[in-house]
C-alpha cells in the first residue's frame, strides 16, 4: 500500500523527520504514525539474533536485560545518544543484532547511521 505512495512517510517518533519538516527540507504529503501500535514495541531473542521492534523507545534499550546480555555495546552507548527526554520519545526503528557481534540487519541497517539505530 505505502510502496506505491511516494508522498507518504511512516514515522514512529518523528525525531528525525520533524526537524527536517520544520526546516522545510522534507515535505511529505501524508504521515502515517505507527507509534501507538503495541505489537511493534518489543525487544526479544529470535534464534541467534536480538529483534528490536520499530516503535521500541530508546530509553528501554538502556536497561533491558536481553540487550545488556547480548548487545552490551548498545546498552553502553544509548545513554550518550541525545538527552534523556529525547531517548524517552525516540524510537529505535527495526534492527537486529547477532549475539556475538554488533552487526545489524533489517530495516534500519543501511539508513543514516548517525540518526537511525
Topology at a glance:
Elements lengths: L7 E4 L5 H6 L7 E4 L9 E4 L2 E4 L5 H6 L1 H6 L1 H6 L6 H6 L5 E4 L5 E2 L12
Parallel strand pairs: 1-2
Antiparallel strand pairs: 3-4, 4-5, 5-6
Overview of this protein structure:
The protein has five helices and six strands, in the order βαβββααααββ. By secondary structure, the chain is of the alpha+beta class. The chain has a single domain (8-105), classed as 2-Layer Sandwich (Uridine Diphospho-n-acetylenolpyruvylglucosamine Reductase, domain 3), CATH 3.30.465. The strands form two sheets. It has a four-stranded antiparallel beta sheet with strand order 3-4-5-6. A two-stranded parallel sheet has the order 1-2. 22% of the residues are buried. Mean pLDDT is 75; it is low at 94-117.
Whole-number total of structural domains: 1
Which architecture per CATH? 2-Layer Sandwich
Number of DSSP helical runs: 5
Uncertain segments: 94-117
Return the structural class. Answer: alpha+beta
Compressed to H and E, one letter per element, the order equals EHEEEHHHHEE
Strand content: 15-25%
